[in-house]
Amino acid sequence: MGTAIWVVLGIILVAIIYLINIYNTLVSYRNRFQNSFAQIEVQLKRRYDLIPNLIEVAKKAMTHERETLEAVVTARNEAAAFLKAAAANPGEASAIQHLSQAEGLLGGALSRLNVVMEAYPDLKTNQNMMQLTEELSTTENRVAFARQAFNDAVMTYNTYRQSFPPILFAATFGHATDAELLEFADSEEIQQVPKVTF
After folding, report:
1. pLDDT band per the 50, 70, 90 thresholds, residue 198
2. pTM for the predicted model, two decimal places
3. Domain that holds residue 144
């Protein structure tokens, strides 16, 4: 009977160690995607800081385009507010979805601004505008890379959380829901293959 007790205690110990491993892995994967979101936050803040400078330079040349400039500023402010909310809890699906929608609106406003700027040749050759546009483009690339890293980390977390046996214990350990992928409108446009007609 002494051996049976040791076997039972051994099984319990192995089970406890296995549960600790599941808990630690869930925490590790959550921390990875939260850190990845922090990298997105840094790049988006950098972009948000560049936009007012871009607007100031454009405002001097585009005297009749006040509505377009105001739309960009409004979209930028909304996106910055949603970024702050998402940064507080990058695992919350609604916060990520709201940020995604706000970024889509900002991207649309910036696209309209670029179209309008085409009508102002002086603006296209302005040294400050060229420098700001280049910095904004570089930041967009950094945002895309950071978003890819975040989405990869989210996928790793979600896959582990949904797998068996972690799914049996995830909710108990405070990991009841999946994390949300961060998709911007431009990622959907990139995935669509353009039609070419001859």
Report:
1. very low
2. 0.79
3. 36-165+176-189
